[in-house]
Amino acid sequence: MRRIDAEIAAEGGKRSRSRAQIMEVFFRSGRHLTVDELTRKVRVRNRNIGSATVYRTLKLLSRLGYVKELDFGEGVKRYESSLTAHHDHLVCTECGKVSEFEEPRIESLQEEVAREHGFSPTMHRLAIYGVCGRCGPPATGKGEE
After folding, report:
1. What top-level class would CATH report for the domain 1-84?
2. Is the full-model pTM beyond 0.85?
3. Lower Cβ count inside 10 Å, N or C end of the chain?
4. So what's the architecture of 85-137 in CATH?
């Protein structure tokens, strides 16, 4: 957190107790949070922190590269830490649950396709949409017969 605080100070930002609490709750959550979800979690610790402060803090952390803004087509942005290893997402279209996964074969194939097209990717995001095991029948891994 000290490195983040130093970068915020370099941007002209001030270290505040509210910002520190928001960052601590966010980075410990390990989830893909909306501004409202994070605000509710932070307000357990400090009732005086509003959603505007949470939003500004997330935007600042995003600008500094510590947070990624995600849009899963729900009409609301979600935020996740950029400090974790690269991963992709499974998004349930029924309940909205977002699960992370890592698959080296997908990463390798994406690199191969980019090379074949003479393309140099700088980043990518993969989200697979469907129905999770709680909302629908269990996946069999086979096509319909």
Report:
1. mainly alpha
2. no
3. C
4. 2-Layer Sandwich (3.30)
Q: State the DSSP code for 33.
A: B
DSSP characters for 79-125?
EEESSSPP-EEEEETTT--EEEE--HHHHHHHHHHHHHTT---S---
Helices (H) and strands (E) in the chain, counts: 5, 5
Locate the domains of the chain by residue range: 1-84, 85-137
How far apart are alpha carbons 18 and 55 in whole angstroms?
A: 12
Query: How many angstroms separate the CA atoms of 66 and 83, rounded?
Result: 6
Alpha carbon distance 67, 26 (integer Å): 10
| Alpha-carbon separation of residue 60 from 31, 68, 82 (angstroms) | 19, 11, 13
